[in-house]
């Protein structure tokens, strides 16, 4: 099973790269890239964030219309990287694994069972409150990965929490700190993590994302 997943991951990434580099670039592509770059610039300035996201959406729409195969390539590469990461982080396979085009979880309303899970999607919107979680195992891994994602995460002090987050375009907000623009990363571990009886590791990775993390 692991060998089959490894082969699938390599095949998806390879086919995606083949499609990606096989596409030509014309005036419309250059215009789309200019929209994307200017949108990132607006977001990084912090004064016209809404305008920046509109520019990103316009640029992405132009690329989608002109280069459908390029979009397919990005999706295949993202899915291949997801399979590779799952195999590395959850090698035993005793976890929930989901792949959807559109996904959304609302674990911020009622108590919910926390167990190791990996989710990939093209579009995702997730609201998570760890203070409502019922932890079933001593150590758990939650993975969210995809193309576009919007995550609101509330961290509980009841567990040891470790967070790794990456967004190529967009923003990551953690308490009073905010990183916007391109290639945003966050790594955080709660105090006395190793001494906690229950631990949760959360891994987030999106091409375009808006991630908001708060302490409860």
How big is the Rg? 18 Å
Mean pLDDT: 80
Oligomer: single chain
Series of secondary-structure elements, N-terminal to C-terminal: HHHHEEEEEEEE
List the domain count as a whole number. Answer: 2
Share of helical residues = 25-40%
Explain what the structure shows:
By secondary structure, the protein is α/β, with parallel strands linked by helices. The protein has two domains: about 1-75, no CATH class; about 90-215, no CATH class. Helix content is about 35%, strand content about 45%. Helix 1 runs antiparallel to helix 4 and helix 3 (about 50-65) crosses helix 4 (about 70-90). The radius of gyration is 18 Å and the shape is globular. The mean pLDDT is about 80.
Keywords:
216 residues, alpha/beta, six-stranded mixed β-sheet, 4 helices, globular
């Amino acid at each position: 099973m692991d060998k089959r997943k490894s082969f699938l991951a390599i095949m998806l990434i390879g086919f995606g790269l083949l499609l990606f580099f096989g596409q030509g670039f014309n005036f419309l592509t250059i215009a789309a890239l200019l929209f994307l770059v200017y949108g990132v610039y607006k977001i990084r300035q912090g004064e016209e964030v809404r305008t920046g996201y509109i520019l990103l959406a316009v640029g992405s729409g132009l690329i989608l219309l002109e280069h459908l195969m390029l979009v397919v390539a990005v999706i295949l590469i993202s899915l291949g990287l997801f399979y590779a990461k799952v195999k590395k982080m959850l090698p035993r396979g005793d976890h929930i694994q989901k792949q959807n085009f559109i996904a959304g979880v609302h674990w911020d309303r009622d108590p919910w069972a926390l167990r190791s899970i990996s989710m990939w999607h093209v579009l995702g919107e997730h609201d998570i409150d760890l203070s409502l979680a019922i932890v079933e195992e001593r150590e758990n891994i939650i993975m969210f990965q995809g193309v576009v994602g919007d995550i609101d995460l509330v961290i509980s002090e009841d567990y040891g929490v470790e967070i790794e987050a990456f967004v190529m375009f967009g923003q990551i907000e953690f308490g009073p700190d905010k990183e916007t623009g391109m290639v945003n990363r966050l790594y955080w571990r709660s105090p006395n993590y190793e001494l906690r009886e229950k631990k949760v590791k959360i891994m987030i990775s999106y091409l375009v994302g808006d991630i908001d993390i708060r302490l409860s």
